[in-house]
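Record type: monomer structure entry
Structure origin: computed from sequence
Chain ID: A
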Amino acid sequence: FPCDTGRDPVRSRMAQFSAVVNMFNSVVGVSVLAMPFILFKCGLVWGAFLILVAAVLAKWSSKMLLLVAGNNRRGTYQKLALDAFGPAGKLVTELSIILQLLGCCVALFVAAGDMLPRVLVDLGYISPHGDSRSIVMIGCAVCLVFPICLSRDLDVIAQLSGSAVVLYLVFFVRVLVLGLPQLFAMEWTEHISYVRLEGTFAALPILSLAFSGQTSVFMVWESLFNPSLQHMSDVVNQAMDLCTLFYGGVGVLGLIAFAHLGPIGGNLLNFFPPGLFSVLVIFGFSVSVLTTFPLMVFPCRQCLLSLLESDLLPGGGCGSGSDHGGPYLGFSSYRSFVLVTAGLLLSTLVLALKLPGIETTLTIVGATATVLNSYLLPALLYLSHSTAGHFGSSMSLQRTAQWTTRAKVVFVMGLVVSVVGLYSVTFAPAEPPALSPQQLLEQRMRQDGGRQPPAPAKLPLQQPEEVQQRQPDARQRLQPYHEDVLQAKVDQLQQQAERGGGGGG
């Protein structure tokens, strides 16, 4: 979305709207699929509160970067780290950015591996049995992701980014259609919790990744015409508020729509009911995920090139203004350009094949490199400039003290998120993965030897005592099926019990 508009007030408002959309698009990703999972693990009230906390921390850390950058006239994350901590700080910053981008690529592969097999099964191209997930992930990497990541046209990459906003809107409409009927039926109140503090460990790392747009602040700021610090601060506020509403809406409606099915997993799309609209939404979201790869690989490749050339390009860096142009974007030959791209994708694909689900991937990425980029480094940069007195008269003492306190809070929260996230992955007891309705049905049919549930007319007539003993088994057997069918079978068993009791008397 172009943001340069001149001084026309109408076009200036359009420019700010475009900047907000750009910032929103750089923040939102596959983490949105885990929002119902977070509310299920933490409870509706506590989970919503944690989403608000994560949004506030993201606003604070982004504005800290803006304050530091506006004070010393530096326009990139790497240059700020170089000024504050020297070459070592720049090295740590670039490594953390590379690790976060590679982690996001792993999450994208895992998400595609969870979604596309569902589409292919519904369309009849593959069987629901077998290891279709690995085959689909490898096929997407070779046939689609690798070719589009070799693109050197930045305009094409920007257009792919803009198309994702439309797909997010369609996805939200589908969640709205599924959640509103359940919301007004009020049956969901029997299946959810409101406060579950034990779910905090699983939620915080995912939320840190969900609001990790700090590295994109400078790109959005540079796209504005004659920008001011207040203007960009307003853009950050509005974009984070929009992300909060989007995440909260998907989380609440997704939880209400599928709470009656039992545990909710980290990929909401697995719970969409069969149907053409669901298939189209899942396919569209899958395409959005796959076309996001160039947005991750391009800056990761440039940061890696900067690291390799650090001795030749002192002060250079990803986005630092060093000359990484040319026909091969700074690489000496097309062969090296292709090999580096293939190496990045291959490493992330191998990791994605080893990880069980999207929630595990998001937790690991959110507790490591994302915490460093989103919380620790912005807080340390601000505290370093504030302690050295670099702000001078540009900020009042009261405002400086206020932001110093916020920086300390962000830093402490970053440490907490990192510790609890790594603990939940390493030491917390593993829980069985949540199954989608289709997986529950297939599992029950396998236990029945591939047979469908027995018809009501074929149930044998039992004595009252025998019926009472068999009713719990019948409930367990019919649990995955529709509630109306379950109730009908329970009523039939009760009628048989009454008839049996009358005959025996």
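Annotation 1: DSSP finds 18 helices and no strands in the chain.
Annotation 2: The chain has a mean pLDDT of 77.
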